[in-house]
Amino acid sequence: MSRALLLGLLVFALLLLGLAFLDGRFFLLLMPLLVYVGAALLQMPDTIPVHVYRNLQSLALQEGNSTVMYLDLINEGAAISVLEVRDQVPGGLHIVEGFTGLVTALPSGGSAQLAYALKAARGAYEFQSVAVTVSETLGLFQRTAWLPAHARLIVMPRARRLRPLPIRPRRTLGFAGPIPSRQSGVGVDFYGVREYQPGDPLRRVNWHVMARRPDRPHTTEFEQERIADVGLILDVRRQIALEIRGVSLLEHGVHATAALAESLLHDGHRVGLLLYGRGIEWVFPGYGRLQRERILRALASAGPGDSQVFASLDFFPARLFPPRSQMIFISPLLGEDHQMLFRLQAQGYAVFVVSPDPVSFEVAYLSSDPLLPVATRMAQLERRLLLQQLRQKGIAVADWPVHQSLDDSIHAAMTSAWRARSLIGSR
């Protein structure tokens, strides 16, 4: 029960007793209480003349890191005897140090600061307002207002760098990089031997050939190594966003996409990102650290999409990607997705699929059941058939059990795909 309510009941009781017994002593007892209430009313401010300014130590951070929230309060009116501040923290944030509330007195023109450290899982968090309550010294009356103090915190997925990816798109860009371009030029891998031409540096003369044919000197050629356009496509369709016991398969896809972006940008490639499922959420292709920041910020807010227009890959916007570039599709895959992937390959794109395994993911969280092995076996066979269809068309697929190494799964799939192509080409 609040102090003001208790005091009101006491005044009412004394008033009734005075009227009932017609005894003036009860009215005399009311006088100190009325003085008490009057003094409280005089001290109570008419408005809340407080301004709140919110500042974050870091507006964007990676998972696992913490940041500090600062709330600065400035009193631009009369002195406030008791000021209580309560910050409204969005769900998903964890306070690791300090408190989100503060009680203090604030003189006219005075200021106070509230600070606390927080951590959060991947996502975008909006801070909207702060609850500010003022009251007088006696604590009988109080006034509360929600003061605006907007801020936005971006928590990006932690990107783990993979080993260099041996991608082989059908077109490379005119800058030095890690991809053999099938053209002679500056490089380190042997490409061939041709006859010496005036202007060739002496260090490239092939002395072994010249020893056999001293009348016709030859020059060694090396294969140029270039960079490429790479499009990362993260599937965020609601149908594939499997979630069990608060753990989401999409979360593994987000971290895989972050790791691929980190590695590809480190190798010098031009990388773009498409989040497919909620609409056309697109990060234009670019290079370097700034592009890494853009991609991680886009991945920070990636969540399941409910758009029925993008329920299947039939509306996939291939025109967003440069012709004959490398596409890496991160998705658990639906049964009908292979047709669209075949069309992308037919249009000249080099398609590589990183597929988080939904079967092993779900089985790891299911309780024991006599029919579970049979159901698991059927689901595995269905998935194996889908992946086999892709591989038979020359699409490399990394079947990734999410509790195992992503790096190993990707390189095993790429090595197997290049080996298969080499065997076909040698026949």
Describe this structure in words.
By secondary structure, this protein is of the alpha/beta class. It has three domains: 50-156, Immunoglobulins (Immunoglobulin-like, Sandwich); 183-226, no CATH class; 228-425, von Willebrand factor, type A domain (Rossmann fold, 3-Layer(aba) Sandwich), CATH 3.40.50.410. It has helices at 3-21, 24-43, 207-212, 249-266, 288-300, 337-346, 358-363, 372-392, 406-425, and strands at 50-56, 60-62, 67-75, 80-87, 93-98, 101-106, 111-120, 123-135, 142-156, 173-185, 189-195, 218-227, 229-235, 243-244, 247-248, 270-276, 280-286, 326-330, 350-356, 396-400. A six-stranded mixed sheet has the order 17-16-13-18-19-20, with helices on both faces. Strand 16 (270-276) and strand 17 (280-286) form a beta hairpin. Helix 1 (3-21) runs antiparallel to helix 2 and helix 4 (249-266) packs antiparallel against helix 5. The radius of gyration is 34 Å and the shape is elongated. The relative contact order is 0.09. The model is unreliable at 173-190 and 422-427 (pLDDT under 50).
